[in-house]
Each structure stands twice: as structure tokens, then as C-alpha cells.
Amino acid sequence: MSTVTMNAQSFSHVIRERHSVRKYDPTFKIAREEIEEILNEAILAPSSSNLQPWRFIVIEDQEMKKELRQIANNQEQVETSSAVIAVLGDKEMYRNIEKVYRSANEAGYMDEANMHRLITGSNSLYSNLPEEVRKNIAAFDTGLVSMQLMLSAKAKGYDTVPMGGFDKQKFMDKFQVSDRYMPMILISLGKAAAPAFKTTRIPLEDVIEFV
Description:
Blueprint: H1 3-17, H2 32-42, E1 54-59, H3 62-71, H4 76-80, E2 83-90, H5 97-106, H6 112-126, H7 131-155, E3 159-163, H8 168-174, E4 181-190
Antiparallel strand pairs: 1-2, 2-4, 3-4
Helix pairs in contact: 2-7, 5-6
């Protein structure tokens, strides 16, 4: 069996084994270094013009998680998981433009002329977009990074559950989040204490069309 085939099978296994887990072992803690490894893989996700409009708040402190549980509709997994990762969307992603393209130039991925062209063009485009459009871009891109985060966690043997049901304004107040950012999703991360609740999917033939 080729390495490519084995890698494909491993990836397929991760996708098929990932389920939303709501029961966690509260005594199990994931090392901060492992959480950083998961996030370093997550941020390899694609984004519009590579502007990476995401930020993360990792809540590990037990008392803080108890308070967050109340903000998140009393969902048990907020308190019992090893950590909760809040994914924020950056409405002002254009502020990342120079950093992103200068980094690519320094890495040898683009020449100076192309770097300046992209900086100028992207600044002109993104800074003049209506806020609602920028919010939609950030929401889309944070969805990509969140899915990649959950797959990375599963590949390392951990479980997750994404949660959109929380009071976003209370979250912003509690964690002093700047108006530049939008709390998009909370992801509980930890070791399952019970099997995930299994679900089915609408058959592919009902949701696909070839033209």
C-alpha cells in the first residue's frame, strides 16, 4: 500500500470518527503545548486573500469556565472539557494586509514588486468594503478554521463540540473583546467520558447535482 493511500485512509478515518461530544472527563487536562499544536494546524486553513481573520481565546481556568457556562446557556461541556476555545472573527482583516504579504515576501514566496501590488490592491479593496460584507467574509473564514481545528483535535485523539448558542454580548463584556472582533463559536476540547450521540446524514443523491 502506498504512503498516499495510507494517508488518505487515515484522513478518512478521522473524518468518519469525529462526532460532537458533550460528555467529558473533567479530570483530564490537555497540555497547553498540545492545544497550541492543534491551533497551529488549524490556522493553516484557507482564508480570503490569506488575511486570516481569526483570533482565539483559550479558556482553561476552571472558575472562568464555570462563569462561561452561564453565558453559554448552561451547557455542561463548557465546564467539564479540558478547555474551551472561542473563535473570533476579525471584521477589520485589512489591518493584517501588510503583515501577511511582507511575511510571504520574507519567506521567499513572492517578490518585492508583487508584494507591493498585493498590499496596495488589497488595502484598496478590503478597507472600502461595507462592514456587513467584511463580517460575512470573517464568518465564512472562521468556519473553515473551526472545522480544521476540530479535525486536528480528533487526529490527536481528542474530542470537540462546536457551540453557537451563547450570549455573544455577555461574552464580549466578560472577556473584554474589542468591537473589532465578533465571537463566532465556542469549541469544547477534551477527552470523551461517554460515546458521542450518533447522527445520520441526508443521502448524497438528495444533495448533489452534476451539470
